[in-house]
């Protein structure tokens, strides 16, 4: 929320310079970390793949990153897709629903999905999942069971839609982090844009109520 247009542009230029130098082709994500005191940003890492958060980019730019990867692989002409042609509209926010127990240090909660009801279709809502009612959630794999992504005209609008969508989600048979996610989204500091790497530690009492 505190990212200025100038810093966003500088980050994009640094990212493009890096992939151009390495002659990288394909989808990837370059991550930076920002020093809250100096407002300087620093390179953190690059993930040379589609990220879990890619729907956020897709919902704000109206681009299909997976389709673009396929088009690139088969040699399609993508010269019309320039940086100047990519426009970000509105705000998107993603929540990952995990079969885990936040009150037990986020330990996985294996079991069977005796109930798995997702929110009804609504404007600005996207859900990515690969499970359904009756499926087992085992400790052998990542316990993420769904991603809920909401887009709105503003950050507040997107947060409100995500809170509503999570409120309509019903999961039984395993513990989930849905109540925790809703507390984060409704926390005054988060809504004010005061989010940082130590957010959960700083507000543990508010977010983990037992």
Protein model, in words:
- By secondary structure, this protein is α+β, with helices and mostly antiparallel strands.
- The chain is built from eight helices and eleven strands.
- The protein has a three-stranded antiparallel β-sheet.
- The radius of gyration is 19 Å and the shape is globular.
- It starts with a helix and ends with a helix.
Comma- or semicolon-separated keywords:
210 residues; 8 helices; 23% strand; alpha+beta; three-stranded antiparallel sheet
Question: What is the element layout, followed by pairings?
Answer:
Layout: H1 5-21, E1 29-34, E2 41-47, H2 54-61, H3 65-73, E3 91-98, E4 100-101, E5 107-108, E6 111-112, E7 115-117, E8 125-129, E9 136-137, E10 144-152, H4 155-167, E11 170-172, H5 178-186, H6 188-191, H7 199-202, H8 204-207
Antiparallel strand pairs: 1-2, 3-10, 4-5, 6-9, 7-11, 8-10
Helix pairs in contact: 4-5
Choose one word for the global shape: globular
Largest sheet: 3 strands, antiparallel
Main-sheet strand order equals 3-10-8
Number of helices: 8
* Rg from Cα: 19 Å
Average per-residue pLDDT, rounded, comes to 94
Provide a quick synopsis of the model.
The chain is α+β, with helices and mostly antiparallel strands. It is built from 8 helices and 11 strands.
């Amino acid at each position: 929320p505190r990212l200025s247009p100038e810093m966003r542009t500088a980050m994009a230029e640094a990212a493009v310079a890096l992939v151009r130098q390495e002659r990288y082709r394909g989808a990837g994500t370059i991550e930076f970390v920002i020093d809250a005191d100096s407002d300087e940003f620093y390179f953190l890492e690059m993930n040379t793949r589609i990220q879990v958060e890619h729907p956020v980019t897709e919902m704000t730019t109206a681009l299909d990153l997976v389709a673009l990867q396929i088009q690139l692989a088969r040699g399609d002409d993508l010269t019309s897709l320039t940086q100047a042609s990519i426009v970000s509209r509105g705000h998107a926010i993603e929540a990952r629903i995990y079969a885990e127990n936040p009150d037990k240090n986020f330990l996985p909660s294996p079991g069977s999905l005796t109930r798995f009801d997702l929110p009804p279709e609504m404007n600005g809502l996207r859900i990515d999942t690969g499970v359904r009612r009756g499926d087992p959630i085992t400790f052998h794999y990542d316990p993420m069971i769904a991603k809920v992504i909401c887009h709105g005209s503003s950050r507040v609008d997107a947060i409100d839609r995500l809170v509503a969508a999570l409120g309509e989600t019903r999961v039984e048979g395993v513990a989930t982090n849905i109540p925790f996610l809703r507390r984060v989204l409704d926390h005054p500091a988060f809504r004010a844009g005061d989010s940082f790497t130590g957010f959960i530690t700083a507000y543990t009492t508010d977010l983990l109520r037992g």
